[in-house]
Amino acid sequence: MSKKRRKKSYTRAGREAFRVKAEKEQRLAGAAGLRRKNIRKGTPAEVPPAIKSSRYDSNRILDQMGYKFTTSQRARFLDLFEVIRVQRPGLFDAPYRDGLAMLVWTEWLRDPEAWRPDGRGLGAAFRSLAAHLTGRYPISPYFWDSMLIRPDGRKMVIITPRVFAHIAQGESLRDLVGTKLLPVPLTRRMVHILGTPRCPMPLEKMVRRAQVLGYGGTENFAKSLGESRLVRFRENEGYWADVIHWFCRQSDLDVVQLDPILDFLITRYSEDTRVDLKGRTVASVMRGMEQWHGELADLKEFRKRVFDPSGFKGGVWRAVRRKEGRKVPGEVWAVREVLTAKDLVTEGRSMRHCVASYRDVVASRHTSIWSLTEDNRRKLTVEVHNGSRTVMQVRGKGNRLPKVGELKYLMAWVEKNGFKVMSREVEMVLG
Fold first, then answer.
1. Which label site among 81, 147, 349, 391 has the fewest CB atoms less than 10 Å from its CB?
2. CB neighbour list of residue 350: distance below 8 Å, 6 or more residues apart
């Protein structure tokens, strides 16, 4: 019988050499997104073939980001690119590449080459990268995760990471109140709420939530305000802080009326005829809004405007009914885009809401307005944000909530165009 082979022993230096070699091979295989494989002796282990592919080309990733960087910012991104493609190339995919774009706009405290990712997932890796580049102290991970939510507009891409870096460096948020980074009047309580977010959200939503809770409002109202037109920072934030305070004091306010009232106030402010809410009730503001609707409809020059189509598809569906055990054709449901100011006024008059005030944002192609009809009878008015392909509002007659039967055809149209739905009305109906 053959003797049993004895296990070969190695010195401490030999074991350390094997460990270093194994870690190097694993790091190279992980950078390529491949499983670890046996590497033949003599094979050059510089950059795996997958890294050299067009998927990880720096120019292509910059184009996918869609931002215009200066020459110095592009150079900084290239320094970051070389490190990430070896350590965590998955960060080049959405939504992490949007977070990388924000990091380019901040001032770095450390060299990216010294970064070593923490955790197993890409989210943990991105948070460790952001903390390594910009932070001195640990902060809520929700701040870093909020950088992965692409904001609406280039301005917030620049502001958001600078505010978060300010917190991570141990500075007080009160130093930023009233500046270009935070042009909103905030009390000490609001600053504390802003520094303790409940979940990842864009910076503007964080600020509006802090204002609502600071004025004694509820989380539900803060969520509704964060999905309205007032979520964006505006000129004369002192006036809009008074508007938010007024909303929080109205115990009889139906949240369904929030968007129509805001449309009224924002349009009046843009026309240099801002509404003073001091001492006003919800009922008196609603009466002023109804009078304003009539003024809009009477503008003859306004009626002549024609809008460019958004490029999205409408839809027509015929319902099927059962009669005496047989299927028979029912009513015709259709979704059509509103393309003239005259039709916009007619839509607003028939549905008794202020969609006519959207004439400027529709003309700028920022928003498109659609009408859901049943046998040519108007049922719902829909607002779509064209850039993000998102359904923002869905309103029935008198700003009522949509019905389940109407949403059946609306959701079919949403699926046809590949839209996202961020409408509180749909959420309230479908739960």
1. 349
2. 378, 397
Percent of the chain beyond pLDDT 90? 37
Closest Cα to residue 31, out of 97, 87, 71? 87
Residue 74: CB atoms within 10 A of its CB come to 15
Q: What is the distance between the alpha carbons of residues 35 and 343, in angstroms, rounded to a whole number?
A: 59
**Per-residue model confidence (pLDDT) at position 56:** 66
Residue 12 placed within a domain: no
Neighbour-count burial of 333, counting CB atoms closer than 10 A to its CB (0-12 exposed, 13-18 middle, 19+ buried): buried
Structure tokens at 160: 């958001």
| Distance, CA of 251 to CA of 95 (rounded, Å) | 39
CA distance linking residue 187 with residue 245, whole number of Å: 13
Separation CA 224–CA 393 (nearest Å):
12
3-state secondary structure of 119: coil
Pairing of strands 377-385, 390-395: antiparallel
The answer to whether residues 388 and 426 belong to one domain is yes
DSSP 330: E
Question: How many domains would you assign to the chain?
Answer: 4
279 in any annotated domain? yes
Q: Has residue 230 been placed in a domain?
A: yes
Whether residue 404 is contained in a domain is answered as yes
pTM reported for the whole predicted model:
0.69
For residues 147 and 216, membership in a common domain is answered with no
Residue at which a domain ends, from 242, 273, 298: 298
pLDDT at 29: 57
- What is the C-alpha to C-alpha distance for residues 350 and 280, in angstroms, rounded to an integer? 28
Report whether 112 contacts 83 (CB < 8 A).
yes
* Omega of the bond leading into 117 within 30 degrees of 0 (cis): no
Q: Which domain holds residue 164?
A: 54-168
Choose one of 124, 146, 168: the last residue of a domain.
168
Burial class (CB within 10 angstroms; exposed 0-12, middle 13-18, buried 19+) of 107 = exposed
Q: What is residue 205's predicted lDDT score, i.e. its pLDDT?
A: 93
Same domain flag for 224 and 203: yes
86 CB-near residues (< 8 Å, 6+ apart)? 27, 31, 47, 51
Looking at the fold, whether 128 and 212 belong to one and the same domain comes out as no
